[in-house]
Design brief:
Number of helices: 17
Strand content: 15-25%
Radius of gyration: 23 Å
Shape: globular
Strand order of the largest sheet: 10-11-12-13-14
Structural class: alpha+beta
Helix content: 25-40%
Amino acid sequence: MTVPESLTIAQARRIALAAQGFADPAPTGVPTLRHLRRVLGRIGLIQMDSVNVLQRAHYLPLYSRLGPYPTALLDRAAYRRPRELFEYWGHEASLVPVGLHPALRWRMAAAHTDAWGGMRRIAVEQPELVAWVRDEVRANGPLTAAEIEHDTPVKKENWGWNWSAVKRALEFLFWSGEVAAAARNTAFARLYDVPERVLPAAVLGAPTPSDAEAYRTLVAVAARALGVAAEPELRDYFRLPVAGARAAIAELVEAGELRPVVVRGWKGPAYLHAEARLPRWIRASTLVSPFDPLVWERGRAERLFGFSYRIEIYVPAPQRVHGYYVLPYLQGDRFTARVDLKADRKAGVLRVPAAWVEPGVDVTETAAGLAAELHRLAGWLGLGAVAPPEAGDLAAPLAAMLAGAPGVP
C-alpha cells in the first residue's frame, strides 16, 4: 500500500510493526540462519541484558518474530567463525552486525571522554594497569576478568589493583575497541580477546568513515528498523549525539532516503524511511521482551500503541505495579495484555506471577491468544507446563483458558 504524506496513528503503528519484522511470514519448519539474517536486517541490532529469570534478553527478539527457534543459531552468529555479530555498545550492550564496526569506531575513539566514569578514571589514573591488562589479553586470551585477576600482581607500589580495577580496565579497553568479546561462559561472563582473533580481517581492514558518515549510516539503520519515527527515536536507536544525528537526518532527507511526514497526534515532524511499507493488517500473537527494540523508547510506545510501559526490575517489590519481569503481549497490531513471567527450570514450569489486560480489548479473545502463546513459549524454553496466573485482572480468564489446554499442573 502506498504510504501517504499524512498518517493516522493506526497507519504509523502498522508501518512500525512491519519495519520490525512482525508482518513477515512465519518460517515453515525449523528457523534457519536465513531467517535469523532476515530479522537482523529488520532490527539492526539486539540488546543484551544479564537478567535470566525467563530467558537471556538477546534470545527473545528472534523468538518474538520467528517463534520457537534453536538459540544455537544466535550463538553461532555471535561467537563462532565466520562471525556475523559482535558485542559492543550499540543501544546499551548489544549484538551488532560486524559490518557496522567501522560506523562505531567514532565511539571507540571517544572512550576517554564518553565512557562511563569508572572506566575513564582507570584509564587516566592507572594507565599502567590498563596496558598490563591489554598485554595479558593479547598473550593469553580469551580470558574472563576473574582469570586475569588471578595473575595480577598482588602488591605493586601506587597501583592498588583489585578485581574491580581489572574489570574496569577491561571495560575501558572493550569500549575503546582494543579488546573484544570472544564468547560468554556459562555464568554469562565475557571472555575477552584482541579484535584480530575475534573479528573478520575484512571488517578490521575496512576504512574508518568520518564521524558524519558514521552517523548517517547508523541513522539510516535506525530509520529502516523503525519505519516511521521522530527525531529522538532515530537518535536513541544507537545513542547518537544530538547535533550529529540531526545533521545525518537532514542529509538523508536531502538524499531521498528519509521523507518528512505528518503523524496525526504527534508533536513535531516524523520521518518515513524510503523502504517503509504500510500493510493492511498485522496478525501477530507473541510476547515481546522488555529489551525489544519495539519498546525501547517508552514515549514512542505510548504514542504508537497507547501503551505505558516501565521495567520494574529495580523497583522494590511492594511498589511494583505489574511485576518483576513483565512482557507485553502483542496481538494483531496492539498490545492487549502484559504478563509477569518466571521460568522455574527445576520444576519444569513456566510461572505466571501476574497477568494484566489492557483497557478496551476483548478479554476472552486476549486470554485465549495469550494462553496459546504461553504454551508456545514454555515449549521453546523446555518447560513442560504453564502454571495458573497468581494475580492480576487477567488472571481468572487466563487461568480458565489455560485449564482447557494440556500441560497445566
